[in-house]
Amino acid sequence: MDILWLGVLALLLIGYFALEGFDIGLGLLLPVLGRTPRDRDRIVAAMAPFVLANEVWLVAVAGVLFGAFPAAEGEALFGLYPLVVSLLLSWIVRDAGLWFRRRLDGSAWRAAWDWAIFAGSAGLALSWGMALAAIAGGLSGPAVGLPGLGAGLLVAAAFAFHGWTFASWRLPDGPTGARRTGRALLVSACVAAAPAAAVAAATAPWLLERAAPAGTLGVLSVIILPFTPLMVGAQVWVWRAFGPRSAADRMPSFF
């Protein structure tokens, strides 16, 4: 049973990086690809229908870690406390930028929130990279340091590549000036998810030693696993409903 939940945790973490990675990557590329207000509007509109659905994967990761590997969660939160705070603050800043940028008219208002999207996305990418590096090192060293910063830059580059590929796929006539197929998007998703997959594999023995008792895992299986198809089905619906869009498409009113 503990191996089953280890697989679920790894799948959720990899799924989060593969899906939320392009949202974070688009935020990183917003000053580069969004040279005009209209380009920035289109980039934000491209990610808008996917953001909340992608963030559900992170919530699920936290839930599984808390329920199936409570000892590991405690050690990770304590050892990564500065990075956990950075992740939460970056998440709030990025999402605030997405929600508030169109609440008022005015170029200065929108530009300020566009920079908030970029800053929050950069914070998320760097914090995730440093967190993965610290976890891979067994939480034995400082949470913040040069090796972690290098890992953060690597994750940021992977997310930016994924975001650029996603923009090229969803906005065929958009600011990237290129058109990418679904196969190219799948490749970039694998690139974005590779760091998470590598760390999940490296930390498997450590997690298994900290798994909850078999009885607890059995109860979790009965309560949680039946809802997994619903989450997967919702993702399938989102991707089928919001495919590539032309320049004539309007931006959703909520972003």
Task: Present the secondary structure layout.
Layout (H helix, E strand, L loop, with lengths): L1 H32 L3 H11 L3 H18 L1 H10 L1 H20 L6 H30 L9 H25 L11 H21 L1 H5 L5 H11 L3 H14 L14
Helix pairs in contact: 1-2, 1-3, 1-6, 1-7, 1-8, 3-4, 5-6, 6-7, 6-8, 7-8
Descriptive overview:
- It contains 11 helices and no strands.
- The chain has 255 residues and is mainly alpha-helical.
- 77% of the residues lie in helices and 0% in strands.
- Residues 250-254 have low confidence and may be disordered.
Features:
255 residues, disordered C terminus, mainly alpha, 77% helix, single chain
Can you describe this structure in just a few lines?
This protein has 255 residues and is mostly helical. It has helices at residues 2-33, 37-47, 51-68, 70-79, 81-100, 107-136, 146-170, 182-202, 204-208, 214-224, 228-241. It has 11 helices and no strands.
Shape: globular
Strand content: under 5%
Distance between the termini: 42 Å
Number of helices: 11
